[in-house]
Amino acid sequence: MFATGIENSIPTIDGGRTRIDQMEACGHDRHWRTDFALLGELGIRVLRYGPPLHRTFLGPERYDWSFADATFGALRELDVIPIVDLCHFGVPDWIGNFQNPDFPELFAAYSEAFARRFPWVQLYTPVNEMFICAQFSAAYGWWNEQMSSDQAFVTALKHIVKANVLAMSRILEVRPDAIFVQSESTEYFHAENPAAIGHAEQMNARRFLSLDLNYGQRVDSQMYEYLMDSGMAREEYHFFLDRSSLRHHCIMGNDYYVTNEHRVRADGLTSAAGDVFGYDEITRQYYDRYKLPVMHTETNLVEGPNGDEAANWLWKQWANVLRVRNNGVPIVGFTWYSLTDQVDWDTALREQNGRVTKVGLYDLDRKIRPVGRFYKQLISEWRDVLPAQSICLQVPIVMPSEYDEPQARRRRAHAQRVLAREPQDDGQQASS
């Protein structure tokens, strides 16, 4: 699956007074018809996309589906496969932030309502980059609750991952053959000197927390103590272990940027390390831990003065994808994120300056960039080659245009029977 995405981040800053809405800032809410047409120009059939949560989820059982009806109706007509991104770094004002213990259940109800309104949608990322969302909101103090403590981080993390888990369960009730693509940042921390080894080891254990909880994987002893010391109750931890069967419906989406590897100093502070290991090595670490099919779900680089910097980065990422594949890891897709340039990511959305971040396949005037031309060529050359690794590794996708076909109906009925046989909240998978 060759994919791109529409940036739909919506965190708040300034104590919740300012909403950063990337769909608005990048013009997608006005130019979505043009944006969807660009997919055809590139030969892209898969789009990471979701409605703006804060403008769609108005209150308990209150929804404004007008924008979603229009945009998802157009995607269905175009036979584009959406990977639906339901929560991207923020929540509606009436929910507050990720410290709110009501968020998981509220979000699960919203996810089910979306699935019932758009039953032809099969692929979902319920909550985008769960680890980064908790880190930036409750450890770094940049977004949303703007807190900075271990307790705030663990509280945000357990609420975010619980929301994702409950959403998966509720969506499966509507679409039993749904597939969940976790878009999660893949990180690595390099010790700068021997005195930094302890800090780096702790950070390298902490980076797995969101996916450990999401997939019902037991955390290591150090992280268990960390979670318990930071406010997670034992029954909360076992909630995640008891739902490990959901992992069978998942593709592990790995996001990788040049900023994902870090140098750790003796005092525990970090700085950017660049791509020391690269996507191949770090993805192998995550795959060895979870043994799930993989998709490269995000990457980009700012176009620099030469004009070819982003295209060269795309080539390097694609080379890493091929290496992952050739090393026997089942990798099913690749994504350049996003379709158009973004705004204010030079400060990680901590400020609202209106500065364009030149990372798109197209600029904000919808003119193609060199990386867009290279991606179009790459897709054309590799589209029919990559799946040849094994027909058994192809994702069982039902195209939007085929949703009502008899074969698709039979597949959903079979998935429903399989789902009915899976352990439900009894901990059997966790204790085996």
TrEMBL record:
InterPro entries (alphabetical): GH, Glyco_hydro_1, Glycosyl_Hydrolase_39
SUPFAM superfamilies the UniProt entry points to: (Trans)glycosidases (SSF51445)
GO MF, one example: hydrolase activity, hydrolyzing O-glycosyl compounds
UniProt xrefs under Pfam families: Glyco_hydro_1
Protein's UniProt keywords contain Hydrolase: yes
GO biological process annotation, one example: carbohydrate metabolic process
Keyword line: Hydrolase
PANTHER family with a match to the protein in the record: ALPHA-L-IDURONIDASE, BETA-XYLOSIDASE-LIKE PROTEIN-RELATED
Entry protein name: Family 1 glycosylhydrolase
Lineage of source species: Bacteria, Pseudomonadati, Pseudomonadota, Alphaproteobacteria, Hyphomicrobiales
